[in-house]
Model the fold of this input.
Amino acid sequence: NGPTRKLFDLGTIFNHFGGLLASRKLQTYGCNALYRDYEPDFLVVTGPSDGIVKEVADSGYCDEHIVYADASDIQMHPGKFYLIPQDPCWNSGSLAAYLAAFDGHTTIFMIGYDHQDTPGCNYNVYAGTTNYQNATGAQADPAFWEKSMAHVLDMYPDVDFVRVMPTATATVPESWKYKTNFRQISFRDFVIE
Done:
């Protein structure tokens, strides 16, 4: 849910029919408050149990959708969430990519995976809304965010992880840069691909 996500019309993805017999239909994995704006096929919620996790649990969204959370959140909100396989303690973006790979997808397009390169800044389109820290003065840990995704890239060397950014030349986190299963493309190239 990084700010670049606002520069791309996600309706293009959610309204994508997949062509002939839906053979190229996209499955969507979203994070936290994305459910406020779109209904991904799978939602991952992480964070304090009394924050966004509680919001999603109380919203009724879990009644009609598959929502993943960690074991402690499942215990706090019985019957609402599915357990994230192996229950790694990562951020929701890394977990969404992990679940897509775990589910057998061989190409994973990642939109809104902006680099958390400034300590104290919350690069999130929902910053300052209910259950989210403000854009500045946040406790976001850029090293944890980068390292978590690097673990996912290492776990699935045969999966093509494609970071979609406004331009293909956007700054890439150092630990992702030389992974053979990672590439970055522009919004335009994403639409073409």
Summary: The first helix runs from residue 11 to 14.
